[in-house]
Amino acid sequence: MNSSIIYILVFVQLWLFRLPCRESVCIPSERETLLKFKNNLNDPSNRLWSWNHNHTNCCHWYGVLCHNVTSHLLQLHLNSSPSTAFYRYYDGYDWEGYRGFQFGGEISPCLADLKHLNYLDLSANDFEGMAIPSFLGTMTSLTHLDLSYTGFIWKIPFQIGNLSNLVYLDLGSDFLEPLFAENLEWVSSMWKLEYLHLRNANLSKAFHWLHTLQSLPSLTHLYLSYCTLPHYNEPSLLNFSSLQTLHLSATIYSPAISFVPKWIFKLKKLVSLQFRGNEFPGPILGGIRNLTLLQNLDLFKNSFSSSIPDCLYGLHHLKFLNLMASNLHGTISDALGNLTSLVRLDLSYNQLQGTIPTSLGNLCNLRDINFSNLKLNQQVNELLEILAPCISHGLTNLAVENHIGAFKNIDMLHFYDNSIGGALPRSFGKLSSLRYLDLSTNKFSGNPFQRVVNEDDLANLTSLRGIDASGNNFTLKVGPNWLPNFQLSYLDVRSWKLGPSFPSWILSQNKLLYLDMSNTGIIDSIPTQMWEALSQDLYLNLSHNHIHGEIGTTLKNPISIDNTDLSSNHLCGKLPYLSSDVCRLDLSSNSFSESMHDYLCNNQDKPMRLEFLNLASNNLSGEIPDCWMNWTFLVDVNLQSNHFVGNLPQSMGSLAELQALQISNNTLSGIYPTSLKKNNQWISLDLGENYLSGTIPSWVGEKLLNVKILRLRSNSFAGHIPNEICQMSLLQVLDLAQNNLSGNILSCFSNLSAMTLKNQRRGDEYKNFLGLVTNIDLSSNRLLGEIPREITDLSGLNFLNLSHNQLIGPIPEGIGNMGSLQCIDFSRNQLSGEIPPTISHLSFLSMLDLSYNHLKGKIPTGTQLQTFEAFNFIGNNLCGPPLPINCSSNGKTHSYEGSDEHEVNWFFVGATIGFVVGFWMVIAPLLICRSWRYAYFHLLDHILEPYVNSVLGRKDFHIEHNIADEFLLIL
């Protein structure tokens, strides 16, 4: 009987296959269900335009898949994963465009009426603030459910456990919206489950999670990265009989554990193990020798504090090995050559030393090697010729050519930030498969004669798509008609010698997305053809050259490159026009002149997407145009050191996203701009060195609560400092120096809580650098009264300047509590009493100026204080080192005036030197991160500029980025 039924079913199936293919026509009731479902969704990009009654066949609707025989709706593909359509090369995804692509709204319960639906993908949409609908648990026909990165919050409904047919379940979430589960018992009924992804879930109360998951017989792929897991008792026996993939990156254990879970090493069928960012101390995983089938091992960013164990070299199936930033030391063993299956190898950012073993040449399958930021000390020709023995797989007895060119399979080489020296061998040019090369920040000498890279060196690199060889002092010497055999999308050759003429071969590279030729000695104008050739660029940096001429004469169309940096050149004439797609523009430190009216006001046809605009240090003049309404995306505007006059335009108040405005060192006049009151996004506001007058309005402290930098120095503001300033709890730089302010110093400054915390806590703040500096400068005003005792609560303050006022009374006794102080200037006031002994507790103090007050008594003894010069204490009744006056036994003191040559306030000179000494504790992070470095020196520009300029008699002092780089590299 059973066999007869089988024969009949086979016959019917064969007969159905013999039928001609017919078009699926959706079932009307299911079409109506989809329309109800659509009505509850937000669809900002109108992707569901086809979902309407005019298109009756819902099987042809967007994201819908029907059964080709029964016409029942089987699958809904409504994900919104970021695609290359939203990718921008220099700073990641175009998130603004992506958010306009996501579905939102609500998920209608009518979805449960689709009884045959087996595949539902709603991933990467925006259902923020909603809980996962429990009715999904009634859709028992589902085999595939993907709700990852959808913004769902709260608990994972236990009803999901009713989906016993699920093969694939992804509930992964991001850091802002972690899901929570009281237990994982609801998973135990999913006997068919092969793929489970719970990234970032809070499972801290799921005490039996390991027992539950190991009982699933079909589970093959398990992703628990960034989860919070409870303490547990490991089972004596593990039944993960089918598990091949395990991701436990950055997992948080509650309570914390300080060892690698041993059960991992019992999973002998594992093919992929990802264990990133767990920071477990101690030696690298010893039990890993048991995982003999591993093909992918990722241990990025741990704290192993050991050498690479020999057992790791026995994992012969490994294809991808990532040990980046895992605190490994010692040398690389010659046993590395045993890993003959390796395709990708990353040992970067460790403490590994010595040389790369010659056995690396055995790894003929390697495509990507990253040895960046190690302590390697080989000559480059030795290093690269190590790869020579690797030849094509079909040849075993062929005598190998003794140069790197035999290693033809390599397509990526990363040797960033090592001490590799010597000359590039000629055979290097025979890596015909090489696609990306990173040789930046090494000690290459190029050709052993003239340090030259010529045409022959590059002739055979036909597959090359990316080069980063910055910081190596190469010289490129090619003929004027040279055309490369490659088409690059990425090229960074900053600090090479390419000039004096503009390199014409760049015009042949019409696929470039990223081009950096900064500081390359170009003394030429920009050819017209360049703007056409690089019209698709997303990043262009030609800064710190000697490029001259008027851009307007070479531009046929507005600049369309997303991120354009032409700063520190000799460009002149009118500002160039921009297309609406440009995001960042830096034309600072050039000679652009005339008004910026045409530049700003002639682009009114559609909104401009510009976010960062830097026109500082040019010769722009006239009033700032009142045409900012169309530039609504601006975040950072720098117009300092020009010749602008008049008032700040009202339309600037319409820039709702503006966070930073620098307009110092101009000739602006009028009162404090009321237009700035409209914006509550301010983080940095610099109106210094102008002719603004009147009082500082109280609304500055009431409205600008997010401000971290407020710089109003060198204006004509009068009146009292408003008490409302103290409400600006995030303030880290307050510079009101050189005005006509009167009244007392506010005792409520102790409410400036960002100045009460030390450097460590501020690393993630504005531009990742501002936390390194805190400053109060109230110098050169007409302030009265005593220094308030409460100011000593600012234990995170680095710079304090109250000089050139009319302050009286003692120096606060608690000044020793301000342990972060590096510079103090109380000079030229009427302070009295003795110097508090606690001042000797300031171990980071690199400059102190108490001159010209009415202080008396002995200068406190302390290592720091006795290292200062005598002129820091003159004009008082003080004694003791460093003054040449001994304190008499009867306590009498003498005034030490010093000589006339000290009438100049040498604090301003010393502060520059003192900064270098006092900031030793922050040099390390600046060396590591270029973006911190540039932003940090940019801030110092504002803080040190008034001190240095007052001595030099200049108004143009600033710290250039390349000087900052060289300075730190020397250190």
UniProtKB/TrEMBL annotation:
Residues 1-24 form the signal peptide. The keyword Transmembrane applies. It is found in: Cell membrane. One of its GO terms (cellular component) is plasma membrane. Residues 28-66 form the Leucine-rich repeat-containing N-terminal plant-type domain. SUPFAM superfamilies: L domain-like, RNI-like. Keywords: Cell membrane, Glycoprotein, Leucine-rich repeat, Membrane, Receptor, Repeat, Signal, Transmembrane, Transmembrane helix. It is a single-pass type I membrane protein. It holds the Pfam family LRRNT_2. The chain crosses the membrane at residues 906-928. InterPro entries: Leu-rich_rpt, Leu-rich_rpt_typical-subtyp, LRR_dom_sf, LRR_N_plant-typ, RLP23-like. Belongs to the RLP family. This is Leucine-rich repeat-containing N-terminal plant-type domain-containing protein.
